[in-house]
From TrEMBL, chains A, B, C, D:
Positions of transmembrane segments: none
Coiled coil region boundaries: none
Domain GFO/IDH/MocA-like oxidoreductase, first and last residues per copy: 141-274
Protein name as annotated: Myo-inositol 2-dehydrogenase
InterPro entries in UniProt: Gfo/Idh/MocA-like_OxRdtase_N, Gfo/Idh/MocA_oxidrdct_glycsds, GFO_IDH_MocA-like_dom, NAD(P)-bd_dom_sf
Entry-linked Gene3D superfamilies: Dihydrodipicolinate Reductase, domain 2, NAD(P)-binding Rossmann-like Domain
GO MF, any single term: oxidoreductase activity
Keyword annotations of the record: Oxidoreductase
Ranges for domain Gfo/Idh/MocA-like oxidoreductase N-terminal: 5-131
Organism: Marinobacterium nitratireducens
């Protein structure tokens, strides 16, 4: 493993730390074609960056993300900043010839996403978007079973991404609730995008949607205690048709009492059904119509070394798989993708589709009709 | 209990037998204002009717339903025949001054339902429609908790009624699959109507819908083995707005592999959430945001004597509640309703709303837009 | 169904009502060789008996159980009185040539049980003991699967019967807590006996045990509010060896917080495992080692018409099965058993074994060693 | 974090890799008083050690564990070798003044364990034994709730550690199945020891036991295909009394079909109950008797930042927690313990108790009676 990949991470919050954990442990978990190095960390101030770099194990730090992006030693730029900054950062990184992994949602609109994907294509750099939940072995297994025909032809998809982190109306305003910083798609952009991406991964692209969104807590206090208007949705729901003709529906909420990580899907086929719930992330439920009638029932498959990726973490089935393990699979994909050993997915180009679905849902609500994904305005 | 109510049941299939079981056991389970009597059974032939009457415990039988409807000794007519016969039978029973309980869906269209409801109103007879699942104590508890404000203001409703009894494409054609006998609403009319009714019961009437339906197995063999076209949907899904403004969605399928009695709902409120699954019919899951943060989680409430109706069947919590027990609650409601001791719900009038929602979903698909429930053509 | 069987029921409490419900509905559910009639009810006063008879649907009543037992019209005596009265009532009924169904536990000791079984054998009457939980279709399926070899050779049995109806230390003294009325086996006699019987049904007779019991709430208030000593155990646990050599364990409690009907068992075999929990009485969980490795997992089988008995109640799988349905299966067994169409189980003779296990657990605690079931004192 | 702790790990199998992953990621997850360094790896051959050291990220390697143990730069020795080697390695490490973490079971008998604990005490080095499952935040929460009185006084404990990795009788002989290498306690020593340790952690030390064990697959093929005798148990079960007087039971199996990581416990108290299952390691079920009667039920608490340790890994409740995360908590405990910032548990001294329980179960089977833990021979 002579080759090294120097990572520069922008942002030291939740995802920045998760990336650092994953990058540190990665070479011990997997045999990799290159060793990822936590090289530089950028946050909004030099002092804070230096302190965080020490804590998270980066060699260098900066209070200016442009410095990181332009540093010749950096091979890969990881963007973990608020959504509205993604475009500028990613374009700068691409311009500097860096490979880029960017947190989701990729940008404020599908147009921005497309601009970023175009730039990456022209520059010939590798990209990946942080739709990390599809990196779960249980979801990889779901895809394997679908491809192997174990549920027959897909008939219906229902997906959710429900959480309740904003259910308390007393929680303060934040950038996530503002149009300029997080787009007018709230739960739709932040959460539904995960399950849209999973639907894409499992059932192919989406052709058409109709939906609606709503704001339940219309105002929240700012830091001065003054109420300000929330500018994007707390909750969304939409019907969809995949390009394959399969029917489906998706819902997402950030105020769904009791749901902590409620990314779920149910995929019904002509010969079986798959059920998944990210709150029990190391299980896949499977009903098989070919079992003898008196022995039929949903079985709970505990993920183990007989399924994708898990065996690198632990040799015992059902011993547990965690959030950061999922991020490690994502980083493994990235490293191997950059080294040409694996196709990358979802790239910026693939995330354009997710963003187009989000945009189409918004338009379908404004125009009260079914909207084709990618339909011109 | 000097008063008696003579029941005449039309149809000796699945529901006819369930009614007979319930009527027989009813006076032992509940203290009733009147004793229901299994008086007469009507099926399509006199011989078959006589045999079935003996087996199910009816005093008399007939091969001609009009004879039953017009018999002066009959107080209540129970209609358990295929959908297309409901209207004629119900109108005849009402004309003869009988109280009527009719299986669901009430009729082939909302117009037919309204005609029947109007006739009943004019005649001043009592009516009930066999949306039996809302008679479950768990669902009665859900309504109690909602009314007591235990989940705060309702924010979202998601309901399903998924089964798989028609998932095998080799199963033969039947009246349920034909427009003339079961309407052009297949799973939509037969199954979604149950969960639409439950939504009505729990969250109030529906104002607007948009949806679509599909036929997956387009042809099925008739008794001669010749393939014939299936004329109504295997599966449906739609978005809805309640009159209260609450957002929701409903789906139903008769080909949902693995689902045997998949009537489920999730009702999210501002302070809690309720989950129900008819496959575990004696449980209600409840999340309460007011629990201390480190002790929060969905709790599984096992239904017992501290909840509605259950104590009449058994004094031990969690000892079990069955399908026929639910029918007994329904019959108890009917008997008490006829005796003026309890408001009846859902009456024919209430089922008009369910039928209007079904009709509106159909129209929303044809016109590819949101349709108001009850919107004039 | 010309033949009739006149039932005389002693006791109008919980079980008396359950019997009445079952007997009333039985002929509508099953095709029976004889019609059971709710003929006479006996309770402790003539007035109360008359009132209850009216409510529960008996033709006649008495305040003197001997009158019932000796009435020539009575064919079957059902004993639903407190345990300490079982022996005298059953012996009188047997002496009068009646068939007898008796609630569990059958008597205060295995010696009493054996005396009752001997009397029944000499008189040639049919007997049945009210271990109703084994009448559940899910448990009948478990036995079918074991007999069909679907889990290979049995390796281990673990059973529980945990409830919490006495967890509140403020609940008053009752006959169940007194040695003279309910034996010195409290939870052991009242609850563990159910799961011992189920173990016997599923895995054969028990050869040896060692266990211990404890009283947690040593005193309870009598009706005058004065604290009195509780005389039998709140909780028990024991290890056992079946005659087959299989190892197992059983526990029971009447103070197990949260358990409402916690009769559960896990039966591990060399090729699979079965799990059952009476709180979800219409499900059986099954793990099959012969499934392909990546598709293995416990499956949840929902009970339906493809399993024993259920189809008589409902034609839809997973539509629900209740406590009183289970009692109906028990009564069906009794009626068919009396008519010679089915072997009865568990008879008085079979309940002797259960009582011997209970006695042996008591002795094993006193002598602090393994005790053979039936070992002479 | 100027201070560094050089780790020398003996063994590069399953646990060796898990330790390496944990040590690498640890400083990024937690703020530590010292930085753990993967310094040296020892396996049975120099070549293999060098290769594995490269893969797992160790600086140095050796084919001779004594070299590692005696290396002056090593601060902590981690022993991940088969059980029979623990004693010799640990004593050598202690003699060299190293801190030691040793995999479980600590040694072949309680006498060996005591010898090792004595040596550590005399040398004044820190020790920890790899009973990693108690490091799970869910179990830490269980202990918190018990200590806070949330379930009242403990009444009963039931624990299991069931897996099925040896259920296939065709699997070959291994050191785990031989008396000389793994003791005569098979599942009892390897698996039950985990749940004994957890019982100790949650309910205090055990005073008395009675149990039995069995070998189901008596012979297994060696590498030449010749059948050899299995020398220790496939399965064990025992009753126990804690020193507190609380009653309990434990079972363990390595052939329990369907169980992959079946470490479970149920702790019943006078005011509530806790349920845990390691197959759903980020959940704790809790029943609270103080809830209003109609709202009582087991709640499923998803572990989050409001519970112990989890927040260092992820800020979102219910986002997942994995096997290697648990090992990181263990290593954090070790590093902080060595730095004097936290009491270490379970130390070698604490594992003596576990071993004494195991020994007592063995003796109770030989002598067919209750045996006091630590009872002299």
């Amino acid at each position: 493993m002579a080759r090294q990949l120097n990572f520069g991470v922008i942002g030291s919050g939740y995802m920045g730390k998760a990336y650092a954990i994953a990058l540190r442990a990665l070479p011990t978990v997997f045999r990799l074609p290159a060793e990822p190095i936590c090289d530089m960390l950028a946050t909004t101030s030099a002092g804070r960056a230096a302190e965080q770099a020490r804590e998270l194990g980066f060699r260098r730090s900066t209070g200016n993300w442009r410095e990181l992006v332009e540093d010749p030693a950096i091979d890969v730029v990881a963007i973990c900043s608020p959504t509205y900054m993604h475009r500028e950062m990613a374009l700068a990184a691409i311009a500097a010839g860096k490979h880029v992994i960017c947190e989701k949602p990729l940008a404020l609109s599908s147009a921005e996403c497309a601009e970023m994907a175009d730039a990456a294509d022209r520059a010939g750099v590798c990209t990946l978007v942080g739709y990390n939940y599809i990196k779960n072995p249980a979801t990889a297994l779901a895809r394997q079973l679908i491809e192997a025909g174990e549920i027959g032809e897909i008939v219906h998809f229902r997906g959710t991404h429900n959480e309740d982190f904003l259910m308390d109306p007393g929680l303060p305003m934040s950038w996530r609730l503002r149009k300029a910083f997080a787009s007018e798609a709230g739960a739709l952009g932040d959460l539904a995008s995960h399950i849209i991406n999973a639907a894409h991964f499992l059932c192919g692209p989406v052709a058409e949607v109709i939906g609606e969104s709503q704001i339940i807590h219309a105002q929240r206090p700012n830091t001065a205690g003054v109420l300000e208007a929330v500018e994007n949705d707390d909750q969304t729901q939409f019907l969809l048709r995949f390009e394959s003709g399969v029917m489906g529906s998706i819902e997402a909420s950030r105020i769904a009492a009791g749901r902590k990580m409620g990314l779920t899907y149910e995929i019904v086929g002509t010969r079986g059904t798959l059920l998944f719930d990210q709150e029990r992330l190391a299980e896949l439920k499977y009903y098989r119509a070919d079992d003898p009638p008196h022995l039929q029932g949903f079985r709970t498959i505990l993920i183990g070394p007989e399924h994708p990726d898990y065996g690198h973490f632990c040799i015992g089935t059902g011993h547990g798989f965690g959030y950061n393990d999922m991020i490690m699979v994502e980083m493994r994909d990235l490293v191997e993708g950059i080294c040409g050993e694996r196709p990358l997915w979802p790239r910026f180009r693939d995330a354009v589709h997710t963003a187009e679905v989000v945009d189409a849902v918004g338009r379908s609500q404004r125009e009260r009709r079914w909207v084709k994904v990618g339909e011109s305005e």
